[in-house]
Amino acid sequence: MGTVQDKLVDGLYGLGWAGVKKLPEPTAVALGRRIADFAWKRRGKSVLRLESNLARVVPDATPERLRELSKAGMRSYMRYWMESFRLPAMDPKRFGTEVEIKDEHILREAIASGRGVIAALPHLANWDLAGAWVTGHVGVPFTTVAERLKPESLYDRFVAYRESLGMEVLPHNGGAAFGTLARRLRSGGLICLVADRDLSASGVEVDFFGSAARMPAGPALLAQQTGAVLLPVTLYYGDSPKLYGRIHPEVPVPQKGTRIEKTAAMTQAVADAFALGIAEHPEDWHMLQRLWLDDLEERSS
Known about the structure:
By secondary structure, this protein is α/β, with parallel strands linked by helices. Helix content is about 55%, strand content about 15%. The protein has 12 helices and 9 strands.
């Protein structure tokens, strides 16, 4: 049995999926902006953490600039949710005109190679919409991994939602998920992984905007084990209603070094690609949690 809080959280998300997709699009956009501004004005822990993270991305920003960025960041974050609530009701034909990805040919050529493709993304803009673009416009299904959320019913909603967009969703349960992902890649499939935060013991330490952070080893390990193409992908919102993005060049497996050394070098290369995209569009990075290791140490001390 779930707690009252669990049931409330699940009910609110259920209301979002059921209700927002029925609203006219301009109404949903306006609602998302109002919710974002209300949350920003409250200056809660998530907003303060977002500002702290943005201060590392834009180190020369004044306090006023950081407040502007965090306000824009909360609006971007709520835009993600409003779009996501509406995605199952959207005409897939719109993805070809409302999503614009630079160097799309890199992805298509990698898929055509038959080697399997790993697309690694940070929490930038709307990764679910980008996934719908892949299935609806590129016409390729893919596999992803979802963290088990509480309550369990909320996790089930997320899985059902993403599966409705043409994604295969695996629970984040360690070795079993890794093995399934490897099999998908060996058969020439595509997997997409959000990969800018990993606080587990297996995370790889990287230099990220001048300080140490930890990111998942999975993308690099899968590329080494299967021979798949590892492609970092960054996304952003522009001034128009479109979602924009970029497919970065392949991160190759180094010719020399131990498995640990190769994994470290490849994960750092992915982190560097993420940093480029985040630095160009910091307001679209939805990192409302602690990420850098020294922030984690402060909390534990």
